[in-house]
Amino acid sequence: MQGKVALEEHFAMADTLMDSAVFFQEESDWNEIKGRLLDIQDRRLREMDAHGVEIMILSLNAPAVQAVPDAKKANELSRQANDYLAEEIAKRPDRFRGFAALPLQDPDMAVDELRRCVSDLGFVGALVNGFSQVGDEATTAYYDEAQYRPFWAALAQLDVPFYLHPRNPMPVDSRIYQDHGWLMGPTWAFGQETAVHALRLMGSGLFDDHPSLRIVIGHMGEGLPYSMWRVDHRNGWMTGPKRHAAKRKMADYFNENFYITTSGNFRTQSLVDAMMEISSDKIMFSADWPFENIDHAANWFDACSISENDRLKIGRLNAMKLFKLG
Q: Which of 6, 202, 258, 295 could form a disulfide with 253 if both were Cys (CB 3.0 to 4.6 A apart)?
């Protein structure tokens, strides 16, 4: 399929590059990924051309800004990354768009930077790498917390999507992975961390207050499409009151306020199941370059056994509409 849009596709600057090194044990693997991360205008474009990807929406690598506890320094890094990305997009505006990196250590700073990126730089949304460390290395903030309501109001007013991207849990929250480091990162911990964060947003009442919000999560929904029924119907015979602020079922918010991408999960059975749960109108193609291969993503997607109408929606039309790329 030609004309695909891919939207979980990352880059790094010199100041954030080493944030990605921890995921690669072999020097040869890291050397390959390092080159991919730092490149935007060369190999990336060749890969896009070879595999039918017309547009990439680019975002900073993880955890980057979210791992800078000092809010002022996080804001400076955000602005640096966003300005750099805007310069790169300007070289090929027909092929690239941008997600804002945001210093959510300080919600007011994040609102200011979001507005600058959308209004002045032309970015199509924001991508944030999970929770933020605030004030010190050990203190974390999740975005269902009360101090973030003005941020969400501003996002709704600007009418742009928010991509909730994974990061690993903090060491204090990672005892379950002790002596099983292979489960960290994309194998398992990324998905679990992001799914819990997304459920916290649903349960907080956020989408009752701002029903127009649109949240994107990757990797075929971080396991959520296959869990929503149980989340809502756990021990359905019980008569006790609900213990969350949300007014509706979690599946209602998931179906109405969330989109998922195929990033890093190139399996037809998983795609078909997600289509049955959330519909093909809420799924978008992505690769997760440079951490996954564009050819693996594109070759699978172009040949997977779905209808051509669904392929067109997932591969292009849904993203064109959501991000107003037309």
A: 202
